[in-house]
Structure formats: structure tokens, C-alpha cells
Amino acid sequence: MPLAREAVELLVQAARAWYFEGNRHGLRDREWMALRFLGRANRFSRTPSALAGFIGATRATASQIVKTLESKSFLVRKPSQEDKRSVVLHVTAQGEKCLSQHDPINHVVNAVTALGNDECVRLRDSLREVLNHLDAAHQRLDASVCRDCMFLAERGPSTSKARASAEFMCRLYRAPISLEETELLCTSFERTRDRPKIEEHLDRARMASQG
Ligand code: SF4
């Protein structure tokens, strides 16, 4: 059997951990997917429309999922600080606890962690490469982190008190981004071809934050 096919078939088997019939710990697979995404998304992507795009559902389906998660106290809506007419979805402490204790992908995360750091990096980079090919073929973009995004720039001197400690700037949203936020998922992400330059800035900021 060609190696590529064997690898993809193993991936399909691994996917049984997160695609399943019925529910686990009270949530269906798409509800888990939504809660997981909202637990990792940045403030621009925790909206009902970004959620619908990420889980590949209609706005009506995403709204139903949000209602289910709210009814279980895993999620609350708050007005957006950037635009008071919009809402931002926040995962509650109870939602975070549920994710850390019962998320069906936790077993897969543990198995991948057991591979060791170098193997994890290789696996992550290979899967990212595969997703890039799929995104190009389907003219679709998945969410990814600011760290790899073309809109991330180093920030100039701050004039605003809010987020005065933010080290970076999003040129798309024209908003400050803190070092921690560069690791969160964003559905407006566009892959950069200029990684080494911003990597340098990130490394400097990371070292400074560690004292
Ligand atoms: S820099 Fe890119 S990934 Fe980060 S918030 Fe802006 S658009 Fe999203």
C-alpha cells in the first residue's frame, strides 16, 4: 500500500475520536468542536458568524449550538468592546473545566504529547503543510494563529492606555495584539511569507516577558 494512503487511512481512524454518533458527556461532536474553537479563538473570532464558518455550519445551526452551550453554562454572550452592536462569545470557567476534563480529543493530545517535542513539531508542520494544500485546492482558509499571519506587525510606541502593554498590531483590524494573543486562533488569518522577520520579534518579546 502506498505510504501516503496508509498515513491518510490512519488519520481517518484517529478522527473517530472527534467525529462520533450521539453525545459524550452531554455534547454532540459539533458542540464539542464549537466549544473547543471558542476556548482557543481570539476576540475577533469569538462571534456567531466566525463560529459558523469554522464548524462549516449555517448561522442558524451555529446559533442553535450556542444556545445549547449557554443552557449548560459553558458559554456567555457579552457586547463587543470594539463594536457595541456585536456580541462576543466567552467560554465560562465551567466550560473550560469541561474541556480540560472531558474533551474527546484529550486522549489524542496525550498520545501526540507522548511522541516527544521533536516528533510533535514534525507532525504539526506536516499537517499544516497538508492543510495548506487542501485550502488552496478548495479556496478555503481555516483558522490559525497570529504568529503565522501576514497582518501581524511589531507595534510602534503606544498612545492608548488600553492594552498599552501589547507588543504587536493587527493591520487588518487595526488593533493591538498582546504576546499571549498571538497564540490564539483567528478566522481572518492569512498565511505570511515573511515568517523569519516576525519570528525574531516574537522571540524577543517572549524573552522579555520571561524576564
Ligand atoms: S494578525 Fe491575522 S490572525 Fe492575528 S488577529 Fe489579525 S488577522 Fe487575525
From TrEMBL:
GO molecular function, one term: DNA-binding transcription factor activity
Record Pfam families: MarR_2
Gene Ontology biological-process annotations: response to stress
UniProt key word DNA-binding: yes
Alphabetized InterPro entries for the sequence: HTH_MarR-typ, MarR/SlyA-like, Tscrpt_reg_MarR-type_CS, WH-like_DNA-bd_sf, WH_DNA-bd_sf
Keyword list, A-Z: DNA-binding, Transcription, Transcription regulation
SUPFAM superfamilies from the UniProt entry: Winged helix' DNA-binding domain
HTH marR-type domain residues: 1-132
Stated name of the protein: MarR family transcriptional regulator
Species assigned in the record: Bradyrhizobium nitroreducens
